[in-house]
């Protein structure tokens, strides 16, 4: 039907524009059909229409070019901001590391404790951050395949889950989104998102059930296969299923290195060294960086191929300079090559940064590479179970540890499994296991494991003050492993025990000085603290002053304040001693635990009271 009113239709949005307008009322587009009495049947003049069309297209092109320039300018601005952010991050990280190193050198910070606390906080935050990112990414995939009837309730569940994640309630978020599953039970993206939230909240059983359901509904779901592989690889009895899941993920994304890296780690744990090597090489071929090269080096180490491990680990070190795991693996490679000086140089450096690290001490004491692997990892296929046993024993959960150890024995004994067997038996009946533990300590097993057995014996005997047996146990161990790291710690324990019982002599002081002169890397403060206590006990106050006065500004710890204050009091410098001891009450505890710190503060208060009473006389 013809339109008799003056005006025109917009060629962009098809809206009617009455009157003599040149631009559309609704969208603002310049109108091609000029104002006037126009109908659908009217045929516009070809020349005029062509000119109008040309002019319109030129205007549109000009507008697009202007928009493109604005986008380019915006992207350049974003790129500049990202560059500034990256530089700021690097400066902040470098500044933080420099501060930590400076404080550690000045004995104002326990770098090991700081590192553990930092890693714990980072891991906790990373779980939350990754859960938020994953939820944000996958929530957009849920609604397009949702059933129309459930749309409104699903949207509400997603909003409430978002709020719970923002408040850092991971378990609550997983539970709330899980309540929406009956609304759309075949929505595989919804199921996967719930499974991922459960995995982040460490509800692994629920996550595994849901991940299996996802791959059943959507067999080409790469992320679900990866999640299932990750969950199953922690369960030794499901290792074959984990390998199959990771193979499926690798087939779905041939260029992605992540499934191959996980596969290499799992095959390495299962002692399939050829399969692990192939998977690690494929991962490096797809992405060469510190992580993939470290994995390749570890596989070569497991295969005894030190000549190939060293170059891979050196290259990994160029990507990750100073990384503990890379440096530790490189030290192991040098041990395998029997280049012990190079290995010991690395281990000494690492122990200074990580005092008392059990893995580093195992490596330092190892007589050869096979002994190290047997004491650290156990027999093939048992490492994960032995790790779990150790965790259970740390928590005094003897029943669960016993069940796992029975399964380990079926796969074969190792030095590590024998040590954990002994530890379990000792927890149950210490008195009955004293002789077996001492026999273990004096055996030809790995010297570090022997020391751990000795420490069980000594701690039990010291609680009961059985001095004759303590001396015999120490003498037996020191005679069997005189050059081990445990020998240094055992000697320090014996001297500390003698000091605690008031049995110190000048000969003991000579031994303490020897230990202080040749300390175990990273444990220098322990030796210095014991030396200070011995010097005070034997009234060598000037030597305490010479030992600690140069260090008190760099290491203003509680014990240093006490020892230096006591020495000044012994030399008659009462006012200086009083000031130093009062400062000590507010000083950092340093390496002392809560009980030790409380005891030292009690001694400081007693000494201050004596100084006050002496001043009143």
UniProtKB/TrEMBL annotation:
UniProt KW keywords: Repeat, Signal, TPR repeat
Protein name, as recorded: Tetratricopeptide repeat protein
Native organism: Geothrix limicola
């Amino acid at each position: 039907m013809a339109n008799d009113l003056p005006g025109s239709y917009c060629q962009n949005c098809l809206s009617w524009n009455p009157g003599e307008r040149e631009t559309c009322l609704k969208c603002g587009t310049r109108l091609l059909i000029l104002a006037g009495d126009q109908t659908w049947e009217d045929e516009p003049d070809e020349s005029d229409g062509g000119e109008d069309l040309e002019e319109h297209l030129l205007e549109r092109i000009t507008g697009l070019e202007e928009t493109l320039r604005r986008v380019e300018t915006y992207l350049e601005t974003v790129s500049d901001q990202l560059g500034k952010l990256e530089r700021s991050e690097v400066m902040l990280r470098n500044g933080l590391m420099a501060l930590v190193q400076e404080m550690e050198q000045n004995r104002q910070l326990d770098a090991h404790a700081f590192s553990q606390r930092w890693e714990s906080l980072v891991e906790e935050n990373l779980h939350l951050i990754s859960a938020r990112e994953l939820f944000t990414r996958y929530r957009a995939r849920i609604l397009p395949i949702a059933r129309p009837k459930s749309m409104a309730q699903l949207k509400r569940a997603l909003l409430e889950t978002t709020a719970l994640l923002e408040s850092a309630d991971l378990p609550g978020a997983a539970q709330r989104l899980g309540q929406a599953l009956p609304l759309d039970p075949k929505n595989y993206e919804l199921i996967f998102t719930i499974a991922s939230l459960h995995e982040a909240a460490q509800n692994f059983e629920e996550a595994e059930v849901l991940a299996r359901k996802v791959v059943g509904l959507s067999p080409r779901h790469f992320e679900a296969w990866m999640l299932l592989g990750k969950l199953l690889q922690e369960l030794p009895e499901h290792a074959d299923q984990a390998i199959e899941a990771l193979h499926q993920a690798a087939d779905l994304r041939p260029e992605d290195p992540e499934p191959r890296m996980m596969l290499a780690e799992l095959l390495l744990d299962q002692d399939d060294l050829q399969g692990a090597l192939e998977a690690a090489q494929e991962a490096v071929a797809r992405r060469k960086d510190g992580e993939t090269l470290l994995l390749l080096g570890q596989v070569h180490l497991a295969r005894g191929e030190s000549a190939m491990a060293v170059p891979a680990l050196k290259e990994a070190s160029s990507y990750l300079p100073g990384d503990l795991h890379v440096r530790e693996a490189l030290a192991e490679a040098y041990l395998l090559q029997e280049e012990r000086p190079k290995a010991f140089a690395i281990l000494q450096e690492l122990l200074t940064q990580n005092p008392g690290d059990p893995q580093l001490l195992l490596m330092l004491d190892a007589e050869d590479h096979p002994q190290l692997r047997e004491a650290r990892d156990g027999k093939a296929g048992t490492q994960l179970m032995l790790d779990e046993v150790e965790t259970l024993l740390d928590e005094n959960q003897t029943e669960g540890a016993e069940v796992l150890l029975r399964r380990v024995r079926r796969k074969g004994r190792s030095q590590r499994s024998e040590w954990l067997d002994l530890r379990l038996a000792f927890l149950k009946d210490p008195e009955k296991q004293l002789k077996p533990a001492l026999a273990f300590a004096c055996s030809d097993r790995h010297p570090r494991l022997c020391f751990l057995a000795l420490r069980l014996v000594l701690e039990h005997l010291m609680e009961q003050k059985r001095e004759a047996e303590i001396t015999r146990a120490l003498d037996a161990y020191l005679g069997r492993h005189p050059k081990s790291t445990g020998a240094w710690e055992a000697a320090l324990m014996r001297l500390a025990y003698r000091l605690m019982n008031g049995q110190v002599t000048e000969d003991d002081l000579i031994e303490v000085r020897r230990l202080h002169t040749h300390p175990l890397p990273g444990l220098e403060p322990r030796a210095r603290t014991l030396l200070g206590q011995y010097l005070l006990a034997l009234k060598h106050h000037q030597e305490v002053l010479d030992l600690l006065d140069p260090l008190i500004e760099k290491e203003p710890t509680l014990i240093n304040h006490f020892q230096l204050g006591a020495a000044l009091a012994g030399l008659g410098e009462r006012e200086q001693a009083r000031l130093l001891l009062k400062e000590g009450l507010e000083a950092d505890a340093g390496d002392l635990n809560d009980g030790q710190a409380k005891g030292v503060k009690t001694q400081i208060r007693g000494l201050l009271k004596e100084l006050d009473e002496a001043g009143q006389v």
